[in-house]
Specification:
586 residues, mainly alpha, 4% strand
Length: 586
């Protein structure tokens, strides 16, 4: 079969890329749900080592097929060359991570196979009894998927490919929250069998999720929810009692070589890590000066942390989760109305975005999920509650410009809208994190430039968000590569950037809650290289815009920012190796 695919006639990079999407959606049903494909499929992925190897083998076959197509001259026009370049870079980066055995230690506080599995249920259609029955059939497969995941981690122990102990401790706690459901038990919610001490154990988040099902199918789904919760409890206990002790002496950090593979995966570039580290320190000093100036506008004579603490405890806030959700929806709706026709030219499907509450036990950071390719499922922003019922607004405004409009939503929804001009791969699976996060951080800056952050509290929240992203570059590279705080650091100059020092340093210069920062530190340790893409990606977007503006002005032309935005958002995915050059030419 592989030889037949490689030698078939008429291949072009875009055809190969789109058939890769189709074949991966068949191998990985979670990918299919995310893209809105294979609507009748009720399977879950194979989380065993064999399942990961099957996906890697598909990537190898696709690269061989791409080699043959390029050798036959099928990538001669620019559209085909751009797609071929992205497909080759992405699959090569993914294979490098796979071949290093990273799937054998995939325990982390977000983005693990188990986290992705749960998120899938939040993305599935649930409007009819038949759609709920499909949910039920997939829910019934959760115990098998979790057992396959445990098989992979067990082989990781045997191979010496281990996660760090901080990840295990955090994930065990998260799974406990999932099993609790994140709130008071609803009357009639399904319960699983006996727990320690002889009491009943609820079906947790799964049980609460299926309570929304029609009565005709709820009992069946409740049984599957109980089985899923019992399997999750067994996995939690195994992580705590078997896996945890096995990884107790494993470093939480990666070292330079392993970190470099992950940086390529997340950024689409082989970055000069020492240059990036030094640049982030210059950003730190600049942002600190701006924050000190803004803090006094919030609270006379206050330093940034004092002002941000006041905003958190005594500043404007929204009471209640539903009121917070409605506030954030209104924020995005207003941004769409104001920016449409002035700085963007948006098609009607792109203007639709929903504000949602994140499932209990999520990581601390808000996040976004893209619309399905056919827009039947809209783009959505998600607010983690973290046990709160009061939501200060000072740092929510710029965050929702990042997650929603004009951030992630405009880029990813526009990609879907122009998919027929590019390839499905270029607007979905080929996405590069640093490109995506760089655009979203650029979107925050754009709203500041356009005058939407003149309120001192909102602007201090924006500057704090920028500072957080600069600190991410410092602590992520510093911890994993083993660098020291520089001589001009206000914190422990000359001492190593250990996880313990990184957490304390973060808390001194970032006005976010202790729980949030604790979650963030674990995130950086579990997803090495991902966090640096925000600020470095924004740098690439700003460099591309400045170069495009200069080129237009050198030709005596007026630079049309709206046209540049739409062209930039319509070119599909690019890694940082290619992004600045492509943006400069628009």
């Amino acid at each position: 079969m592989a030889e037949e695919l490689i030698t078939s006639g008429g291949d072009t990079p875009r055809r190969i890329a789109d058939e890769y999407v189709r074949d991966l959606a068949e191998l990985d049903p979670l990918t299919a749900v995310y893209l809105g494909l294979n609507a009748e499929d009720d399977r879950l992925p194979d989380f065993s080592p064999a399942g990961a190897e099957a996906i890697a083998d598909l990537a190898r076959r696709t690269l061989a097929r791409l080699d043959a197509a390029e050798a036959a001259g099928a990538a001669e026009d620019e559209a085909e060359r751009r797609c071929a370049r992205l497909l080759r870079e992405r699959l090569t980066a993914e294979l490098a991570v796979h071949d290093a055995g990273e799937n054998f230690r995939a325990v982390r506080n977000l983005g693990s196979p188990v986290h992705n599995l749960r998120e899938t249920f939040t993305l599935m259609a649930t409007g009819t009894e038949d759609e709920w029955r499909l949910v039920g059939r997939r829910l019934a497969r959760v115990p098998l998927a979790l057992e396959q995941y445990r098989q992979t981690l067990t082989e990781g122990i045997e191979r010496g490919l281990l996660s760090g102990p901080r990840q295990v401790e955090t994930v065990v706690g998260q799974f406990g929250e999932w099993l609790e459901g994140g709130g008071e038990e609803e009357e009639g919610a399904p319960r699983s069998g006996s727990d320690e001490g002889g009491g009943g154990r609820r079906a947790g988040w799964f049980g609460q999720f299926v309570q929304a099902a029609p009565e005709a199918v709820r009992a069946e789904l409740s049984g599957h929810a109980v089985a899923a919760a019992e399997a999750l409890a067994a996995l939690r206990d195994w992580l705590r009692d078997v896996y945890g002790p096995a990884v107790a002496d494993t470093p939480d950090t990666t070292g330079r070589e392993r970190y470099g593979r992950w940086v390529r995966y997340w950024t689409g570039a082989d970055l000069d890590l020492d240059e990036a580290y030094a640049w982030a320190w210059s950003e730190f000093h600049d942002l600190l000066a701006q924050m000190e100036a803004e803090a006094g506008k919030v609270l006379p004579d206050a330093d940034p942390l004092t002002a941000m603490n006041w905003l958190e405890t005594d500043g404007p806030a929204i009471e209640g989760a539903e009121a917070a959700r409605e506030y954030l929806q209104g924020l995005m709706d207003r941004a769409v109305r104001d920016l449409q026709g002035t700085h963007f030219d948006l098609a009607e499907p792109v203007t639709r975005v929903e504000s949602k509450i994140a499932p209990a036990g999520s990581a601390a950071a808000p996040y976004y999920t893209a619309p399905s390719l056919d827009f039947s499922r809209p783009g959505r922003t998600w607010l983690p509650l973290l046990g709160r019922d009061r939501f200060p607004v000072w740092d929510l405004v710029s965050t929702w410009y990042h997650e929603g409009v004009p951030g992630h939503h405009l880029q990813l929804a526009q990609w879907n809208y122009v998919a027929d001009r590019l390839s499905t791969y270029q607007v979905s699976l080929g996405g590069v994190s640093a490109n995506l996060e760089g655009w979203a951080l650029y979107a925050e800056r754009l709203m500041d430039e356009l005058g939407y952050l003149t309120d001192p509290g909102h602007r201090l929240g924006y500057l704090n968000a920028q500072m957080m992203r600069a600190l991410r570059v410092i602590v992520d590279i510093g911890m994993h590569v083993g660098l020291d705080f520089p001589a001009d650091s206000p914190y422990k100059p000359g001492e190593p950037v250990s996880p313990e020092h990184a957490r304390e340093f973060f808390g001194l210069y970032c006005g976010l809650s202790a729980d949030f920062l604790d979650s963030e530190l674990v995130r950086y340790l579990g997803l090495p290289g991902q966090a640096i893409g925000y600020k470095l990606g924004e740098r690439a977007w700003l460099s591309g815009r400045a170069a495009a503006r200069a080129a237009h002005e050198a030709r005596g032309e007026e630079f049309d920012l709206k046209a540049w935005h739409m062209a930039a958002l319509s070119q599909g995915s690019l890694g940082l190796d290619d992004l600045v050059a492509e943006l400069s030419a628009l």
